[in-house]
Amino acid sequence: MRIPAPLTSITQPSSATRTSSPAKAETSDSPVTQGNVIPATAPTPPDTFSELPASCGLPVEPPAPERIEAAPPDFSVDGVPARFTDVTDALVDFTLDVGAKQASVRSRLELTLREEGYPVLDLVPDVTGIRVNGEEVDPSLFELTEDPDGVTQMRVLKTLLPPGEHVIEFEYSPTEDIRFTEDGVDFEIEMDDLAQRKFLEQYFPASFEYDQHPTTMNLNIVGAGRAHKVMTNGALTELGDGAYQIRFPETFTSSSHFLHIIDPSRYVFLEQSFQGINGEVPIRVYSDDEREAQSAMRTIIATMTELEETYGPYAHDAFTAFIGGRTDGMEYAGATQSSLWALEHEVAHSWFARGVFGNSGNTGWLDEAIVSWRDNGYPTARSYTDQGNYPALASFSPYRRDTSEASYSHGARIMSELDLILRDQGGLRPVLREFYGEYRNKVVTTQEFIDFVQERAPVDLETYFRNKVYGGRDPEPNGLRAAEPAPYVPVDEWFHAYRRRPSVLR
Fold this sequence. Notes:
Blueprint: E1 8-11, E2 75-77, E3 80-84, E4 86-97, E5 102-113, E6 118-121, E7 129-132, E8 135-137, E9 142-146, E10 153-157, E11 164-172, E12 178-180, E13 185-188, E14 215-222, E15 228-232, E16 235-240, E17 243-248, E18 259-262, E19 268-276, E20 279-287, H1 290-311, E21 319-323, E22 329-332, E23 335-338, H2 343-348, E24 357-358, H3 364-375, H4 410-421, H5 428-439, E25 443-444, H6 446-456, H7 462-468
Parallel strand pairs: 3-6, 4-14, 20-21, 21-23, 24-25
Antiparallel strand pairs: 1-15, 2-3, 4-5, 5-11, 6-10, 7-8, 7-11, 9-10, 12-13, 13-18, 14-17, 15-18, 16-17, 19-20, 22-23
Helix pairs in contact: 3-4
């Protein structure tokens, strides 16, 4: 069985003073897809930052409601509406200069505003330059702002824009998780769904989890004295001379991207193919421990086989696993960095979390509850009640971005109780399979899940979900707001028994 080319590439040492261009690589008739590395016909990508769409800055038809209905409510800054945007495309030039030990980014977001206002985005590093529709803007106007409920911060660009299409460009020098050595550089996008502002915005200008759009990254490693290897869940094209282009799919949100730039001499790399429902899925595993890598490969194939049988086709074109570097695990869309003990959990997140995407921290409980229920062997509750006080899982501010830790335990109990409630329909798993089929590669809200289950349940679950998910509160029309969460219920009063420590499963 042929194994597709790995979703990796090695660049040979380059010189910062090189003046000659490399010879053009042979071209391929095959399109660039996730799972293939295809040489490009030119050593560097074109500079498109100076090109603006013809419609830039002009009124357009408002974006389709389904693309932005899961966004948090707009709010006011100094009496001006701050508007959550619909990003339609992103371009990132990411340069890592080994000789200067400095990184630089130019980023361009194409976005649509439904109504006049200040655009709301996020970026943790401070910017040094901004252009809006080709015009220079004072970087200090990209202001760090607290949301109206005081649960998180984000960036508001205090430049009043009319409804329509706009292009915003940023320049800055990131430092987070970039480790320069004498002859090379290591970099990894490290996300965390149990904390605020720990998704893509740590490194690059980003929208939020409700927003899906493609991203093209032009990555350049210059002045290196050793080879590098690029691991990613995007479609990687090698341009030569330390340059790469990575295309991330239009389904990705701010919590999806995986990128790891490494010294290949430090790792063992394994490649195998999983025969999925929709065809072959390349699997890449790398680790500094060969036995752990081999064990991980077996675990991934077995887990993917089970999950396809249970829920349906794998949602991505490949799966990449970095085994090591942490004692827990973190999921990405078709990728993970994980320890061995958390690996099954993280693989399952490519079905729920990064296959069906939650729109915010108010929906993060859902994927953790489903996956934790699976971790424990899909138990069925012996009984259930819709009365009592329980930890809130989804009745927080709509601006919240982190997941409730009660999702792993109390959330898993909810799934076991739903399995009991739906027993005459075959249990919860057939319903989740249908849910996954309908929402695969789409963004979903807690209320959409509740409505989906209620339509198939033999009993009225309004009180059940209000108490068990919303912590005893009636959600407001936006679906996710309430005052204080319900009183805490001790762990030993829950049906669910821990198999794993919830604080380290993400």
